[in-house]
Amino acid sequence: MATVSDFPTALRYTREHEWARVQGAEIEVGITAYAAQQLGDVVFVELPQVGSRVTAGKPFGVVESVKSVSDLFAPLTGQVVAVNHVLESAPEQVNDSPYNEGWMIRVQADDDKAVDALLTANEYADWIKQADGAH
Which tens digits make up the pLDDT trace of 102-120? Predict the structure, then answer.
């Protein structure tokens, strides 16, 4: 069972299992360790081009694992300013280091306060407990 200690408290989270880290004027985005564990071994990651726009709650890419293919959902709206190209040749970074080397994109948010509306680590852990209890 996931607990809050499983999720870095400096990050914010979505109910779709993405995380967001404020890095100065940019927001770094990836998927949570919980999501990576649920997916199994990640074998392919499809990410947007630098300069493209992402919209909060809408798909921005795809992650494919040995078990399934899942959309990646943008936690906020803005312009993609960086993409983790390492994942093209080393998609396993998503499993091995979801909060560090496994980051996916960096976004210049349209609203720099949008990240504040995302879930805290406590709220995300509580949400997972409720979701797991519903299965």
Answer: 999 999 999 989 999 999 9
Domains of the chain, by residue range, sit at: 10-114
Q: Give the pLDDT confidence of 76-85 residue by residue, as tens digits.
A: 999 999 999 9
Phi and psi angles of residue 89, each rounded to the nearest 5 degrees, phi first: -105, -15
CATH of the domain spanning 10-114: 2.40.50.100
What DSSP letter does each residue of 63-107 carry, written as one string?
EEESS-EEEEE-SS-EEEEEE-THHHH-TTHHHH-TTTTT--EEE
The answer to whether 98 and 32 are in contact (CB under 8 A) is: yes
The pTM of the full predicted model, rounded to 2 decimals, is 0.93
